[in-house]
Amino acid sequence: DAYKRQTSRRVLDVNVVGVWLGMKYAAASMHQRCGGSIVNVASTAVLGGTPYLVAYGASKHAVIGMTKTAAVELAPDTRVNAICPSPIQTRMMRSIERGANPDDPESARDAFAQSMPLGRYGEPEEVAALVAFLFSVPYLGLQLKASGTMFHTLPDGMVKNQPFDEAIITPTTKDVAVSYTHLPLPTRDLV
Fold first, then answer.
1. For residue 150, what pLDDT is reported?
2. How far apart are the first and last CA of the chain?
3. Which residue among 70, 100, 175, 182 has the highest number of C-beta atoms inside a 10 angstrom radius?
């Protein structure tokens, strides 16, 4: 039980406190330079429950909440977005696969991959490309879900410099299917 508490504390420290501190110091530096862009990494875990990974799921929900708050507080000079990668081909997934099926982690990998829209894990390079895209465009407060693939174009109707609550990427087409609600822009600089 002490191990679970220690592990949970570490997950929360890295994924919540680490993101908060990163935003705090990045925002201060960006404020001095008249703005910038922050991209936080959440997870598709925020779209549902995370059995046996409660600290991880809770921490990624916190990232989305902090991103939404910072997007409103730091607008319009600093853009704050979060990406929600699906399982990515990394060491973390190897650990989850071993935990899900210690006797046959390959079958766990196959089962996880088949639950992805493209039948495979995402690649780290795809996540990096999504982050690079968000650094390059003037959107605020997006929560982007990347489910095992990347996207190519954004649909018409997204307003530049307008914070959004959520944008969901649908990987089965080359366009992004978006559902969003507008967040109010702050009336004063809260930095």
1. 29
2. 41
3. 70
Distance, in Å, from the CA atom of 128 to the CA atom of 186, rounded to the nearest integer, reads 30
Cβ–Cβ < 8 Å for 67, 78: no
Q: Is 180 known to be catalytic?
A: no
Q: Helices (H) and strands (E) in the chain — how many of each?
A: 6, 4
Alpha carbon dihedral 129, 134, 137, 138, in 10-degree steps, equals 180
Closest CA to 139 of 183, 172, 189: 183
E strands within 16-168?
36-41, 78-85, 143-146, 167-168
Please list, in sequence order, all residues whose beta carbon lies within 8 angstroms of the beta carbon of residue 80, skipping any fewer than 6 positions away: 23, 37, 38, 39, 40, 67, 70, 71, 74, 140, 141
Which of 56, 121, 139, 180 is an active site residue?
56
Full-model pTM: 0.72
Bridge partners, residue 39, by sequence: 81
Q: Which helix (H) or strand (E) holds 27?
A: helix 18-32
What would the two tokens of residue 185 be?
């822009």
- Radius of gyration of the chain from its Cα atoms, rounded to whole angstroms: 17
CA distance 22 to 109: 32
Residue 6 tokens read as 């220690």
| Residues 84 and 143 sit within 8 Å (Cβ to Cβ) | yes
